[in-house]
Amino acid sequence: MADSSAPGDGKFSLPLVTESLKLIKKEDGELDLTKYNAAYRDITKLLEMLGTVFSFVTSDAKSKIEILEAYRASEQGEHYATIESMLQYEKDTGIVLDNKKPSGARTLLRLHRALKFIMEFLNRMGKSTSDAKVSTLAYECYHETLANYHVWIVRKAAGMAFYTLPTRKNFLEKLCKEEEDVVLGLVSELAATVLPVYEQTEELYTKFDFHELP
């Protein structure tokens, strides 16, 4: 049976993070920002479990999540209930252009970019065969996604770190103590669940013309 860790126990569970992602889209179709943050925290547990190699993603993601949670808890919190309402509010008020502190839109954009890397990595892991190298998959996904936004020294360090990743067999065992085909199925399901959240957020940033926020 797949890992059945309870929500909030600090452990990572493929099925639970998938369910957490499914809660982000509300009945009215908007993306709940609080649930987005919660699901992202679950995803960082996955990366942390795989070792310090992903620390350049997890440490940044945690700080960004905290910024968004602070906005949600502020006096203007009602405007940060969903991703849609946040982007509209910050565009209308000009907060998005305030250089004194990171806006919610700018902060979420960094998480959004990292999510593409995570999604691509999970997708390729789910489809991988026994001869695949985790280090190669991670390296390729990184250079096709996040590397485009990192300075040379970060790209270099990340590229070298990926080669410390475990073998495919050990990697899958860390994800879930199940038969390989079961784990691959869970990984693929997780990647597929991330996709609509990523795509809807991407469309929103296009709509508001926020893709190039500094």
TrEMBL record:
Molecular function per GO: ceramide 1-phosphate binding; ceramide 1-phosphate transfer activity
GO BP, one example?
Answer: negative regulation of interleukin-1 beta production
Q: Pfam families, alphabetically?
A: GLTP
Q: Name one GO cellular component term.
A: cytosol
Read off the Gene3D superfamilies from this record: Glycolipid transfer protein
* Superkingdom, taxonomy of origin: Eukaryota
Its recorded name reads Ceramide-1-phosphate transfer protein-like isoform X3
Q: Which family does it belong to?
A: Belongs to the GLTP family.
Q: Where is the Glycolipid transfer protein domain?
A: 32-177
